[in-house]
Design goal:
With 195 residues, the chain is mainly beta. It is built from 2 helices and 10 strands, in the order αββββββββββα. It has helices at residues 5-13, 163-169, and strands spanning 17-26, 29-34, 40-42, 45-48, 52-54, 58-59, 68-76, 97-105, 112-134, 137-147. Strands 1, 2, 3, 4, 5, 6, 7, 8, 9 and 10 form a 10-stranded mixed beta sheet that branches. The mean pLDDT is 76.
């Protein structure tokens, strides 16, 4: 993917404003967040303000370990009925798509020029950490681990990997799963048959 020429020109000027957006496509609900002070609409979705603390960094390891990005949200729970992250446990969130986008804008304006970068992930797991006591209430900080899409990112979920997923992760011409059993309980014969 290449940058929009308008975005590239602004980068060449050496002054940009960056807006980080996170979009969750949970089953039955799409919700977005950003770190600004008021709601922000982009591509028809209203991104809720002041919800996530940290967009997270990437961590990985050698071998078969999957690269993971952890994002942190504060102030869980909230009373806003549209805040799906505050009540994420009500959704079947495992492996739901998440898009992390970085928009490029002109500093000291509300003008967005285009996308600097975007990444697609899937939700791997959700963790809660207790926050400080405020008055008589305690809030939670929630961490969401994101991993790249595809069966290799999901570990052992019991879901059969499709040929399309195999080709996405490897090569568009990969036919490695063509002769693999569709279910572990169904025996598949390999090699030559005795006549």
């Amino acid at each position: 993917m290449s940058l929009d020429p308008v975005v590239a020109a602004q980068i060449d000027k050496g002054r940009i404003a960056r807006l980080d957006l996170i979009r969750f496509d949970l089953p039955g609900k799409t919700v977005g967040y950003h770190r600004g002070g008021r709601s922000y609409t982009y591509n028809g979705l209203v991104y809720l303000p002041n919800r996530f603390l940290d967009i997270g960094s990437m961590t990985s390891a050698v071998g078969t370990a999957v690269t993971t990005r952890t994002i942190t949200f504060s102030n869980i729970p909230v009373t806003d009925p549209d805040d799906a992250i505050a009540k994420i446990e009500e959704f079947d969130y495992q492996n739901s798509p998440v898009i992390v986008a970085h928009l490029c804008g002109v500093p000291n304006t509300s003008e967005v020029l285009g996308i600097l970068a975007s990444s697609i992930y899937e939700i791997d797991q959700v963790r809660y950490n207790k926050g400080a006591v405020s008055g008589s209430e305690r809030t939670l900080t929630m961490e969401i681990d994101l991993q790249p899409p595809g069966r290799s990112a999901r570990g052992s979920t019991g879901v059969k990997r499709s040929i399309a997923e195999q080709q996405f992760d490897n090569s568009p011409t990969d036919t490695g799963l063509e002769y693999v059993a569709t279910n572990a309980s169904i025996p598949e014969e390999w090699g030559q048959r005795q006549g």
